[in-house]
Amino acid sequence: xxxxxxxxxxxxxxxxxxxxxxxxxxxxxxxxxxxxxxxxxxxxxxxxxxxxxxxxxxxxxxxxxxxxxxxxxxxxxxxxxxxxxxxxxxxxxxxxxxxxxxxxxxxxxxxxxxxxxxxxxxxxxxxxxxxxxxxxxxxxxxxxxxxxxxxxxxxxxxxxxxxxxxxxxxxxxxxxxxxxxxxxxxxxxxxxxxxxxxxxxxxxxxxxxxxxxxxxxxxxxxxxxxxxxxxxxxxxxxxxxxxxxxxxxxxxxxxxxxxxxxxxxxxxxxxxxxxxxxxxxxxxxxxxxxxxxxxxxxxxxxxxxxxxxxx
Length: 311
Known about the structure:
Blueprint: H1 4-15, H2 34-45, H3 48-53, H4 56-71, E1 76-80, H5 82-99, E2 106-110, H6 128-137, E3 145-149, H7 156-167, E4 171-176, H8 182-186, E5 189-192, H9 207-226, H10 243-257, H11 261-270, H12 275-284, H13 288-297, H14 302-309
Parallel strand pairs: 1-2, 1-3, 3-4, 4-5
Helix pairs in contact: 4-9, 5-9, 6-7, 10-12, 11-12, 12-13, 12-14, 13-14
């Protein structure tokens, strides 16, 4: 059981964190009209992109390193607790339908396991050992990338994940919202997006959560661009798993090729609904089997495959 002295030390530590700072100018916010509170929150949110912009060089370096590992067969693994963990799981879960990745290729770990996505299991965040065990269960390798996510930058689960991953030779990234954080120091690539104190003291699902979502959007999206999962700004690896996505697949082929509907339908039928080889059959003038072979030889990069299809 934690002693009073331990709590005093933790309170003192929290008091030093920007994300935990108290804002006396907002002490009467509960007495304001709803529209004024909404205006204040909107103004707070407007400051987040600038804080992210200040970290763009570090974000870009982390993305390039991640893409290099993933191009060699490595995985991208997010690890966090509470809101931070949920954001990682959310980003990971969007990669298969958006980029046709294998569900095991981009993975989100949350302290306390899957049930923590919908029910707070706050005590789980205090264990570095739990993070190491979760990574061991994935059979972590040196080809993988592990991103520890923590608004405070002091969450033991996120730090433990990064420390264990680094000891295994994996690439490590620490995403936090406090400068000089233990998480940033533990990782090879420390990304510290300092968004300042929250509207509600310590409620880091607000600006800090928004900042983390923006950075995770960048990391996954730009990494997939570097891996050839897009053609220009078109999602040519989209997985058509429902009616909306089947319609989107046809629209993507149309935007990429300018071909008439009949040709688009024939190309998609020949490639089992896969967008990227369908585009290659149309623009490269090759059959589906050749398109699949060329994409395999070029690591799935459509532009390279197109160049290889032309004499």
